[in-house]
Design a protein that fits this description.
Elements: H1 3-10, H2 14-22, E1 30-31, E2 37-38, H3 41-55, H4 60-71, H5 77-114
Antiparallel strand pairs: 1-2
Length: 120
């Protein structure tokens, strides 16, 4: 599959895919006789993972480290697992903060409903 379709499937823009490739965050992408990138299902799965890591706020430095470890094979599984576990824990903490923010907003919204004059 070519870059436009790959971008649509994995959620990344073509520009981001090119950036990730240049920065070494993607495995080797084969090219056809016309010089265009040809993405495999494995490439798509990797790029989709990168999409979600970034979407959930993983810093680029950490993503770079994770991808370098992935390239080193099974010897780095423990460190990769730790990166993902730490990120999952950070997401739990962010989720708790967002839930508190949502409850504060709900209280404030409800107060406007009770005070039709809008004095709050």
């Amino acid at each position: 599959m070519r870059i436009a379709e790959a971008a649509r499937v994995c959620g990344l823009s073509a520009h981001t895919i090119r950036y990730y490739e240049k920065s070494g965050m993607l495995p080797k992408i084969d090219r056809g006789g016309d010089g265009h990138r040809r993405f495999t299902q494995s490439n798509i799965e990797w790029m989709t993972l990168l999409y979600w890591l970034r979407e959930t706020g993983m810093p680029m430095k950490q993503m770079h480290r994770f991808t370098q470890l992935a390239k080193s094979g099974d010897s780095a599984i423990d460190e990769r697992r730790k990166i993902l576990s730490d990120h999952a824990q950070a997401l739990k903490q962010k989720r708790a903060i967002l839930e508190k923010c949502e409850s504060v907003l709900a209280i404030k919204i409800a107060s406007y409903g009770m005070n039709a004059a809008g004095k709050n």
